[in-house]
Amino acid sequence: MFRGIDEVDWASLRHADGSAEDVPGLLRGLASADPAERETALDGMYGAVHRRGDVYDATLACVPFLLSLAVREEVPDRAEVVELLVSIGDLGADGDVLAARARAALRARAEVFVRLAGDADSGVRRVAPGALVRFLDGPTRVLSLLRERILVERDDRVLTALAEALGLFVRRHGHAAAARSPRRHRLRLGPDHGAEAVRLLEALSGPLYGPALRLAALGQLAGCAPERLPGDLVPLAVGLLRERSGRRAVTRHACGDPGPETLAGRLRRLRPSDEEGSRLLRVLHSALGSRVADRAELLCGQLTSPDPLDRCNGVWMAAGFVREWRDGHERPVALIGAQLGSREDRLHDAAVTVLAEFHTLAAPAAGHLHALVTPRPEFRIRHGERGAPALGGALKALARAGDVRAVPVLAEVLAGPVVPHDLGRVIPHLGRAATPLAPALRRRLARVPLDSPRTHEQAVPLLAALASLGDVPSLPSVLRLLRGMPERARGREAAVHAAVGALGALGGEAHEAVPDLRALLETGCAVAAAEALWSVTGDADAVVPTLLREVTGTGRDRRRRAAAVLARLGRAARPVLPELRRMAGSGDPSDRATAACAVWRTTGEADRVLPVLRAGWSDHPHTRVVIAGCAAALGPGGTPLHDLLREELASPRRHRADLAGGHALHEDLVLLRLCGEALGASA
After folding, report:
1. pLDDT tens profile 445-478
2. 175: β partners
3. Which long-range contacts (CB under 8 A, 24 or more apart) does 638-645 make?
4. Does the pTM exceed 0.85?
5. Alpha helices per DSSP H over 339-471
6. Of 554, 560, 602, which is closest to residue 577 (Cα–Cα)?
7. CA-closest candidate to residue 627, choices 641, 606, 637
8. Which residues pair with residue 653 across a beta bridge?
């Protein structure tokens, strides 16, 4: 297996962590009899030799030894070795010389994968079909091998892999796909090859085969030949999913030793309980793409399945669907809410996590959320890994949805012994409905000790919440904290920023704080203090020098925040116009957009900044919220951008659909609101 390994000058080769001297040990570890050593070695291969899909000269040198491991039947976990080889040969940027050499090396040894396609190990047989399509020359032979394996294979999971390989064959080597593809080494085939593969997929999707294979074939057809799909695709897919779930044997695995804490091990443990079912439906959803109504119907079928694993997979797929598309989510979200009553912890936790990301879109599930948190105090507070208290996911989801029923529950939380650290980020979503919470927030702030190591942890969320409410009676408590917290106290800057924000929210009612804010104009809180001082006094002369200094400084975040504050000043910001124009013409896209908005709001002259703003909107979607906010602030003056705003509102896809997580979703909801406000202001 390792003949010649010691003759390679590994010390002169490199991987992600530097010298490749450790690679021989990793390769030998892959053949170890000890499962922990094998997993650690695989972790090392993905962590250094093939990190994030990159190919290094050390990666290339590993290929012959990995191929030798793959064909030795005595080597355990060979399927993972073959997966690694496929990844090495399939990834890497176009134009990457080392990646191209790796693909060439695997193509030169592709007969190995022909042998592995009939291996005794079903795990190896599952990975081999994809390798055949990627690396074996001769489309006629590849298609013949896949057809042959379909005829003789009896393992359902291998059959689904063969269906996936057929879909890959059509997408990768079909006539139309090959003509469009920029990748090297793809063959330009005649239409008969693609048509034959599609006919095989159609046959596999028929009633002669099991539900998992039929689902796999339907998913591949949706991706490569959607015109050949049956008219009743969604009901058929839902029926097949339920048939598959009904056949699946319920197995219980003892926990045992979780093994070493490695990257490969963590990824394995994070996989869905029903990984195959998850993959089958994800492929189908991905292939359906913009067919939003069909995807919503499919999600509803998943979320009403008798099998909790199907419903759990449906919850996570619904999250991806809502993050990407702006319509079709009401019924799936309501059905996610229905999972909150499940006794399956994994399903319940998935539903809570997803709904907390949805903000106002969680409204169809609000009844279920309220029913969960009202009688169950244990769902109101949770403690993180370091013991920091936070709001429970269900209560957070209810409040972020803007549901007034969260207010009395939050009042009970405030009456308890701890202040959740995310309270200040959640209460603003309730708007003025949260006003009844102000007295409790005020009392808690007045009791925060000034000299405790945890002062900032307790004060910051309270200050942020009070700022969102503009609570004038809290002024004495805010000033007490601002004036009394020791200079060297831990977290003081964060607490000062939060206090300044609360003062700014009070406007002219905080006139007593003017000396304190002036004193902060020469500190790290200068921009926040200048903004608050402007809100309190309206005195531009007092803040423009500070903002000019910050907008020309080296701190990117402070520079951008200063430009945003200058935009609020309007004509009073004219002394800073040269710097704002310079900032709008170069640098980071966010800097350019923020500065261009400030120039427009200061001068009212659209012509000079519209090219910057239009380019930012088109090329850098993360700037759209800033630009839409500018158009909304300008009222009828923002008309030159209204075509972009109308186009945004008409788009079915979210503006940053490529990002995971709730932040991008919330940002999109803010963008839609600002677009509506801007267009409404000029109506």
Report:
1. 999 999 899 899 999 999 999 999 999 999 999 9
2. none
3. 638/678, 638/681, 638/682, 639/682, 640/606, 640/610, 641/610, 641/613, 641/614, 641/617, 641/678, 642/678, 642/679, 642/682, 644/614, 644/617, 645/675, 645/678, 645/679
4. yes
5. 345-357, 366-373, 393-400, 406-414, 423-426, 438-446, 455-469
6. 602
7. 641
8. 325
